[in-house]
Design a protein that fits this description.
It comes from Vitreoscilla stercoraria. 44% of the residues lie in helices and 19% in strands. By secondary structure, the protein is α/β, with parallel strands linked by helices. The longest helix has 21 residues.
Length: 326
């Protein structure tokens, strides 16, 4: 099957060249453009949108109509902007978040899993833009052979500015910049209100992964709770990493945070819920301040783990925290 991929990619390129009138005409057009006045160059550039991101500069056709959205975060943002009509397909082989159930109606192409895209299917459906994600970095070079590729990536060390930049880049592609700016301003106001109420309050973020507990602190994928929402890290030395720092139940009670934010990885990956609540239901945790004060908060893992940085998801993430700091 792998032998088919180069052929499919070649076929895709051939179709694109044919649409331009073949190699001879393309060469002639390029030569003509080089000798044309600057106004012609400006017209050509106006037909493309330039995005800066982790993959460098990506040139996207203006008025793009066929987006292969390979990341649930991107789809969540496109939903918030009212631009789902641009999406031709997504990874449907993975556990799709319930908020995206409408994409399982048979109208969208299944491109595989969120960490492993079927290149043959992707190439044969000729997207005009591919939006990749961190989980798919290993396939980016292959994506680029098919269509312009942009990687949605949030720099967790600079979370909020990075989130805004990614949102505005997606909005720029679909002509929804004004709508995105308005929504971002609303979110900015909401997180500022949260931060005003959390001064001096400590927090610990824990991801339950079956029988393992992983702690996340400032600068992590969930560091928004500290950097933007104002909670003080109960332990500033927690190592930053994709998978967090392994901890014990005793660690939680020793650090004794005011708020304990808990996520259940299994709930987002397998759809099986209740694991986080079961993990926290023990005598050690019951000795903690967070348990006694009713401040153990079970976060929506689909939003925080699968769509962290999506525009709709961010709104719901903020509301979750708002509801516990009233």
């Amino acid at each position: 099957m792998k032998r088919l991929i180069p052929a499919l990619l070649a076929a895709t390129v051939a179709v694109a060249l044919s649409a331009c009138g073949g190699n001879t005409e393309q060469t002639a057009n390029t030569t003509a453009a080089a000798s044309a006045p600057a106004t012609a160059s400006n017209t050509a550039s106006a037909q493309q949108i330039q995005l800066q991101g982790k993959l460098g500069t990506t040139l996207v056709p203006a008025n793009v109509a066929r987006i292969a959205a390979l990341d649930y975060t991107t789809i969540d943002t496109l939903m918030a902007l009212g631009a789902t009509d641009k999406i031709i397909g997504l990874p449907l082989a993975s556990n799709v978040p319930s908020s995206l159930d409408s994409f399982k109606n048979g109208k969208y192409i299944d491109f595989g899993a969120v960490n492993n895209i079927n290149l043959e299917t992707l190439a044969s459906n000729q997207p005009e833009l591919i939006i990749s994600a961190d989980r798919l970095e290993k396939q980016n070079d292959s994506f680029k052979q098919i269509a312009p590729t942009y990687q949605y990536h949030i720099d967790t060390a600079n979370y909020w500015p990075s989130f805004k930049e990614q949102t505005l880049n997606i909005a720029k592609v679909v002509g929804k910049t004004a709508e995105a700016e308005q929504k971002l301003q609303t979110l900015e106001t909401q997180v500022s209100e949260i931060a005003a109420k959390t001064q001096g309050k400590t927090a610990l973020i824990v991801l339950v992964n079956n029988d393992k507990l992983m702690a996340f602190g400032a600068g992590s994928r969930f560091g928004l709770i500290h950097e933007k929402m104002g909670f003080t890290p109960v332990d500033p030395s927690i190592k930053v990493g994709t998978h967090g720092q392994s901890i014990s139940y005793e660690f939680i009670t020793e650090k004794n945070p005011d708020y304990l934010f808990v996520l259940d990885r299994a709930a987002s990956v397998t759809g099986k819920t209740g694991g986080a609540e079961a993990a926290m239901n023990n005598d050690i945790i019951k000795q903690s301040k967070a348990f006694k004060d009713g401040k153990i908060v079970y976060l929506n893992t689909n939003n925080w783990y699968l769509m962290n940085g999506g525009l709709n998801a961010m709104q719901e993430m903020i509301v979750e925290v708002q509801n516990v700091v009233k």
